[in-house]
Amino acid sequence: MSAWLEDGERVVLEDRRSGRLEGRLRAFTGAIVATDRRLLFLERPRWAYAFGLIGLLLTKPTERRLDAAFADIASVGVGSHGRAKTLEIELTSGESHRLLVKDPEPWLAAIGPQSAERAAA
Length: 121
Fold this sequence. Notes:
Blueprint: E1 11-22, E2 26-35, E3 38-43, H1 52-58, E4 63-69, E5 73-81, E6 84-91, E7 96-101, H2 104-120
Antiparallel strand pairs: 1-2, 1-7, 2-3, 3-4, 5-6, 6-7
């Protein structure tokens, strides 16, 4: 899964069993990755959902739905969707993303230092 890494970039935090919420009822599975420069959400291809569980087991998250440098992240918050925790990310372009995570604290810690550096600059 390292084909998306740029030169000199390293993975800080990764969760391959997460999801992305679109609206109230649509959820897509994938992987959240925080590198030392950016935040990514890699989603399974949409055609895999047509084959149900077999399609999800046979495919890997490859499509980039979120690829944002830390400088492009305006705010990060924590919310909930039922019993699940969500990481609510708003970009400077006005886009917002809701990512399902088990524990939001490591993600806030990974994104937090870059946010503090950006605010101080």
